[in-house]
Specification:
Layout (H helix, E strand, L loop, with lengths): L1 E6 L16 H17 L5 E4 L3 H8 L6 E2 L9 H8 L7 E6 L3 H11 L13 E9 L2 E10 L5
Parallel strand pairs: 1-4, 2-3, 2-4
Antiparallel strand pairs: 1-5, 5-6
Helix pairs in contact: 1-2, 3-4
């Protein structure tokens, strides 16, 4: 199973948190990553997005075809996210557009076996993880981690 974690692009400060919109820089970040995804993303891809405005705008730079769920929203936990996508048993590929610290906690758990402290996923960045079995043992492999300013 492939899991692509895309943190929303840069958003305005303010509240309520769920209605914060992307900044001009954030729109640019989302467009850069959308172009990269158009070239590199798996062809068969389930897309799961937080209901927050900034995540909806981030994915909107690439496609209008996605599922919205609070299971990856601003209050979601790593357990919520992993259950929503069926990791790793669902197979296939899933792109999640969500938030810190949840995305960093998921990455830390899958790569290190422990989410304590989590990892820092930059605004607008994408991490691509793959679950595979090798010699009868399951493992998570980091395929890529890329920030929009690197594109």
């Amino acid at each position: 199973m492939d899991l692509l974690l895309w943190r929303h692009a840069e958003a305005e400060e303010g509240s309520p948190d769920d209605t914060r919109r992307l900044t001009e820089r954030g729109h640019h970040q989302a467009e850069l990553m959308a172009r990269w995804l158009a070239e590199h993303a798996p062809k068969e891809l389930r897309i799961v997005v937080s209901p927050a405005t900034r995540t909806q705008q981030t994915i909107g730079a690439w496609t209008p075809h996605f599922e919205t769920t609070v299971a990856v929203g601003t209050s979601a936990t790593a357990d919520d996210l992993l259950a929503a996508i069926g990791w790793p048993d669902a197979g296939g590929a899933v792109l999640v557009v969500g938030h810190q610290p949840t995305l960093g906690e998921v990455a830390a758990r899958l790569l290190h076996g422990d989410e304590t402290g989590g990892l820092s996923v930059r605004k607008g960045a994408l991490w691509w993880l793959r679950w595979r079995e090798r010699n009868g043992l399951g493992e998570t492999v980091l395929r890529t981690a890329i920030a929009p300013e690197m594109l």
